[in-house]
């Protein structure tokens, strides 16, 4: 090491400095010690990630039957058997019905033959020709009974069940994320300063990685530019109220990047309002709104807490009650009911995914369906892998994997449809403010690189979990 006096990179003073071979910068002894300490902390994070991954590998080796694809195969087997059994029962019932019809016809022919026999006996004038006729008729009826020509079994070349195959690819289907997050917005305690958040409810990430946040308890929508130290108010921020320039507990926000407008679920004011260039327009009034979504056809979806329903409107046509696309059959836990629907997601097929908050499940309602199916949770409130606790934000990726902000369990879960258990992708380490912990997460989103962002509601911050490539 050299000991010439040069400018220290950290304290910016002329001192005897020492180079760091990694970053090629020069530090004085004090700052070099601190620099090494930071590197040691980062190494501990790497070791922690390694240990967690190694633990997963060991668990998979010890319990190969717990592999997610094994569970999918088991479910396929059960569903296939059920389908075969159902079809077999249908064919049995059809055969019994057809067989009974055949027997009834044969009995009628036997009765006719019996009448002829009785007539021959009564008249006592029968001869060989009559006897041959009776024998022939009886043989024909017996053949019809033993070999019914109207019934047979035909093998169909079209498969009754859906075949499956194992496709191996170098690129994994399931993404994973670093378990220690980076705070990218807020994290400075709750408050109304521009570097603070107060119960962030909903987030949206644009292509430039700017973050739009429904800052619920601050009654405002804020935008945090990529790598910014503070946000800027783009809607509300004028105190809690019902004026056109005010918001009251905004629960959700949709950002239209083409015309720079935003649509807000202004929950406290029971209205859906649009802001464009600081001008406001109420789109839907007198609705207990919470979650918003928009499909590729520009239909707007709104969850209605009071009606326990999700409704849909065509853009620009809001002077109606909307069309119910999920729930609407009163509060309950039946498949045609919801109980406090919170956030929603709409896929390419216009299927609606609903976080059924008080039923602790996520429901999927296909387009025009009269009832939904449970795709996550639905086994009561709890912390097991087949349970959810007060689910909030929900996103479905292009592979059909369902990501849920499992608020009451302080974790984000990933579920595959028709699989009974999910898996924890981040959090799940108890509620807290450490970088690997969450406290009542309310929403999640992804950027174009696949990094995962979480609205850490009770920690008043937005956490970024970097994808592991």
TrEMBL record:
Residues 81-130 form a coiled coil. The lineage of its organism: Eukaryota, Metazoa, Spiralia, Gnathifera, Rotifera. PROSITE patterns: NHL. This is Uncharacterized protein. NHL repeats lie at residues 332-368, 381-412, 431-468. The keyword Coiled coil applies. The keyword Transcription does not apply. GO terms for cellular component: extracellular region. Keywords: Coiled coil, Glycoprotein, Repeat, Signal. Transmembrane segments: none annotated.
């Amino acid at each position: 090491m050299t000991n010439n006096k040069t400018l220290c990179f950290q304290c910016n003073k002329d001192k005897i400095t020492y180079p760091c071979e990694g970053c090629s910068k020069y530090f004085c002894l004090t700052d070099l010690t601190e620099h090494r300490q930071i590197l040691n902390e980062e190494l501990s994070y790497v070791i922690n990630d390694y240990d967690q991954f190694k633990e997963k590998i060991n668990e998979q080796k010890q319990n190969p039957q717990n592999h997610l694809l094994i569970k999918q195969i088991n479910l396929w087997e059960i569903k296939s058997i059920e389908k075969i059994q159902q079809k077999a029962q249908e064919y049995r019932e059809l055969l019994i019905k057809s067989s009974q019809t055949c027997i009834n016809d044969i009995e009628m022919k036997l009765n006719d033959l019996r009448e002829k026999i009785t007539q021959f006996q009564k008249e006592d004038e029968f001869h060989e020709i009559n006897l041959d006729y009776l024998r022939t008729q009886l043989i024909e009826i017996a053949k019809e009974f033993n070999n019914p020509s109207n019934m047979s079994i035909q093998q169909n070349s079209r498969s009754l069940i859906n075949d499956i195959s194992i496709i191996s690819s170098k690129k994994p289907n399931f993404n994973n994320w670093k378990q220690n997050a980076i705070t990218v917005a807020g994290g400075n305690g709750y408050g109304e300063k521009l570097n603070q958040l107060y119960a962030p409810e909903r987030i949206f990430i644009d292509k430039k990685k700017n973050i739009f946040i429904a800052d619920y308890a601050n009654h405002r929508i804020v935008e945090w530019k990529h790598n910014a130290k503070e946000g800027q108010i783009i809607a509300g921020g004028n105190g809690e109220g019902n004026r056109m320039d005010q918001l009251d507990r905004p629960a959700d926000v949709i950002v239209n990047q083409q015309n720079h407008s935003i649509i807000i679920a202004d929950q406290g004011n029971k209205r859906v309002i649009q802001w464009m260039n600081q001008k406001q327009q109420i789109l839907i009034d007198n609705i207990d709104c919470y979650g918003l979504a928009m499909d590729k056809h520009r239909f707007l979806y709104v969850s209605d807490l009071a009606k326990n329903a999700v409704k849909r409107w065509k853009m620009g046509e809001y002077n109606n009650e909307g069309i119910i696309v999920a729930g609407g059959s009163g509060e309950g836990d039946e498949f045609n009911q919801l109980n406090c629907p919170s956030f929603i997601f709409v896929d390419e097929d216009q299927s609606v995914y609903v976080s059924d908050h008080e039923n602790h499940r996520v429901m999927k309602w296909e387009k025009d369906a009269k009832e939904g199916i449970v795709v996550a949770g639905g086994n009561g409130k709890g912390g097991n892998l087949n349970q959810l606790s007060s689910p909030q934000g929900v996103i479905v990726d292009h592979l059909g994997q369902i990501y849920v902000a499992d608020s009451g369990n302080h974790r984000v879960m990933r579920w595959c449809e028709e699989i009974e258990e999910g898996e924890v992708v981040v959090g799940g380490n108890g509620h807290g403010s450490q970088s690997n912990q969450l406290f009542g997460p309310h929403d999640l989103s992804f950027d174009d690189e696949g990094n995962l962002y979480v609205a850490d509601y009770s920690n008043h911050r937005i956490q970024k979990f970097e994808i592991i490539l």
